[in-house]
Amino acid sequence: MSSPLLEQLIEALRVLPGVGRKSAQRMAYHLLERERTGGQRLADALAAAVDRIGHCARCRDFSEDEICPTCASASRDVQQLCVVESPADRLAIEDATGYRGLYYVLQGRLSPLDGIGPAELGLDRLAARLAEGEVAEVIIATNPTVEGEATAHYIGQLARQHGIRPSRLAHGVPLGGELEYVDRGTLSHAFGTRSEMG
Amino acid sequence: MSSPLLEQLIEALRVLPGVGRKSAQRMAYHLLERERTGGQRLADALAAAVDRIGHCARCRDFSEDEICPTCASASRDVQQLCVVESPADRLAIEDATGYRGLYYVLQGRLSPLDGIGPAELGLDRLAARLAEGEVAEVIIATNPTVEGEATAHYIGQLARQHGIRPSRLAHGVPLGGELEYVDRGTLSHAFGTRSEMG
Ligand SMILES: [Zn+2]
Ligand SMILES: [Zn+2]
């Protein structure tokens, strides 16, 4: 390699998902040949994000503040709480629907074999939140997978224990699919026609 | 978006080749969820590379020094000069063959319609280099495309003007292909059986 710094950059790029040695090399050359300003901007954005983005104390979504802008907003409906597995799922719902309630981001799904139980998903804090009495509807938007369904079942019971009605997105989300990849129209329809949990 | 810094990171990632909004989003979440240390390392490597990697004054390859390690090395054969289009091509030859001569990186190919002529490829400096009298063989390893062939023809004439024999890689490199993607074995064979230019 003609430059140790270039070699370091190529190795460092491999931290990105799906990027092998060859892609990393092409990315490095592309940045150095044609996008130095964009490369500097990326370096700055990445350093700031890694250093300053944590989790919202209220909803567990990514946030650079103690409480994220959504949770802190006075214009959201505090009676509705939508529970999702990941920040990407939360973003997909926010983008596709007109939902104005709040969110709770599990950062995962129940998976006993991987050692992921209720505590790892912050379900104790979710229970405390439901006990506050503000939430009237828990919209469970976990993925339609085996583990997502088990997680939904658990949260549905939790809601009922606090006298809150749980609902799920309507059929329309493809079985076995990932919420994040559902097209806007389908997701918006499924969200709008969500049904009370049986 | 739950965090302005996250939004900035996603936008900044789109500077990478082939990365659209959705991939950028997945990359950002992956880094924040699972690879913060690697993300910080990438930020540092990128900032250092963009700031400190320039071009070798002798061969035009990427280099963080005025003269790159290859050009500065006492153990390379100064009688052989291999001319390539890009740093990636130089790296492919260095990796696949036992070549111990020097390189000249054009950083492009002749393309009159795009305004890329001899001056843009530093061919004046290449001519000055050949005039120094050290080089005995110019190995022309441009890509086997129309523009690459035209570039090879031009450099072949330049070599002959200085009484130096030009050679080209042997057949084996697929026509219309990009050198960078040729497998090691084919490239090594083609390099070893290069022929004098007709
Ligand atoms: Zn929040
Ligand atoms: Zn050099």
UniProtKB/TrEMBL annotation, chains A, B:
- At the top level, the lineage of the source is Bacteria
Keyword Methyltransferase among UniProt keywords? no
> Which SUPFAM superfamilies does the record cross-reference, listed alphabetically?
Recombination protein RecR
UniProt keyword Metal-binding, yes or no: yes
Ranges for the Toprim domain? Answer: 79-174
Q: Where are the zinc fingers (C4-type)?
A: 56-71
The record's annotation in SMART domains points to:
TOPRIM
InterPro entries in the record? DNA_Rcmb_RecR, Rcmb_RecR, Rcmb_RecR_Znf, TOPRIM_dom, TOPRIM_RecR
Cite a single GO BP annotation: DNA recombination
Gene Ontology molecular function terms on file: DNA binding; zinc ion binding
- Keywords tagged on the record: DNA damage, DNA recombination, DNA repair, Metal-binding, Zinc, Zinc-finger
> What NCBIfam families does its record include?
recR (TIGR00615)
Family per UniProt? Belongs to the RecR family.
Role description = May play a role in DNA repair. It seems to be involved in an RecBC-independent recombinational process of DNA repair. It may act with RecF and RecO.
Please report the name of this protein according to its UniProt entry. Answer: Recombination protein RecR
Organism per entry: Lysobacter spongiicola DSM 21749
Q: What is the lineage of its organism?
A: Bacteria, Pseudomonadati, Pseudomonadota, Gammaproteobacteria, Lysobacterales
Q: What gene makes this protein? A: recR
